[in-house]
């Protein structure tokens, strides 16, 4: 042990003796500064096992109060190391603060721990996510009780939407709430694409075919009911429906290829070829 270390130990021992004799606040603050590194170490160790939404500074603040109580209650005559005594008190103070801030009752969190532990064990054993029945057999509980445990485990999880993405390398970081998809909102671009596509498809259908599409897909009428509305037979409606589906499929295939030209059905392609032959015979 170096001379400087020995002298530091003698100085801190003298501070302890004077503080215990007088209770002077300045001496207590000197001891807090001397052992504050323990608070940082313990708080960082606990924060490593917690969600990133927990601020380590809050844990350190709670740990400082634990350190102050440890200094005030420490008995220097017992010959124990203050670091060992202090570590337990600081650790306990941080855990007490976490429990006080927890919005989930302790019983619910304990039930959630039972479910998550069983779920993790079975997932490791089966190499897949276990079913409710398998969890019930593993825990020896009814399936309804396992479902209740699952719901409790969901209550203990909170996701922050306002925290910046820590993995983002750019200086302008996006919050999760800024990129959250709203399934109920209207997207102008999607509406524009849908309208253009509907117009393109509609131009390739006759008036009767467009009427069949509207009555069948929009109004929900059956083929028989459509036939009554149009004054034609049900079989004729089915033929019109089959034909328009072929036309739409061919048109979409042309759009996908990028040439903008629809692929004509085989029956339709034969007609142009037959026309020159007919003219030649005439």
Please characterize this protein's 3D structure.
The protein is mainly alpha-helical. The protein folds into 3 domains: 3-101, RNA polymerase sigma factor, region 2, helix turn helix motif (Rna Polymerase Sigma Factor, Chain: A, Orthogonal Bundle), CATH 1.10.1740; 106-166, Arc Repressor Mutant, subunit A (Orthogonal Bundle), CATH 1.10.10; 188-269, Winged helix-like DNA-binding domain superfamily/Winged helix DNA-binding domain (Arc Repressor Mutant, subunit A), CATH 1.10.10. Helix content is 70%, strand content 0%. The chain has 12 helices and no strands. It has helices at residues 3-22, 25-47, 56-73, 82-101, 106-126, 132-139, 143-155, 188-202, 207-218, 223-230, 234-257, 266-281. Helix 3 (56-73) crosses helix 4 and helix 9 packs across helix 11 (234-257). The longest helix has 24 residues, at 234-257. The chain is elongated and about 110 Å long. The chain starts with a helix and ends with a helix.
Could you outline the blueprint of secondary structure elements for this entry?
Layout: H1 3-22, H2 25-47, H3 56-73, H4 82-101, H5 106-126, H6 132-139, H7 143-155, H8 188-202, H9 207-218, H10 223-230, H11 234-257, H12 266-281
Helix pairs in contact: 1-2, 2-3, 2-4, 3-4, 5-6, 5-7, 6-7, 9-11, 10-11
Helix and strand sequence: HHHHHHHHHHHH
Q: Which sheet architecture does the biggest sheet show?
A: none
Broad shape:
elongated
CATH architecture of the largest domain: Orthogonal Bundle
Number of strands: 0
Rg over C-alpha atoms, rounded to the nearest angstrom: 38 Å
Q: Name the CATH superfamily assignment of the largest domain.
A: RNA polymerase sigma factor, region 2, helix turn helix motif
Number of domains: 3
Q: Mean of residue pLDDT?
A: 78
Secondary structure category: mainly alpha
CATH T-level topology of the largest domain: Rna Polymerase Sigma Factor, Chain: A
* Helix content range: over 70%
Distance between the termini: 120 Å
CATH class of the largest domain: Mainly Alpha
Please work out how many helical segments DSSP would assign. Answer: 12
Low-confidence stretches: 1-6, 165-172, 262-282
Approximately what portion of the residues adopt beta-strand conformation?
A: under 5%
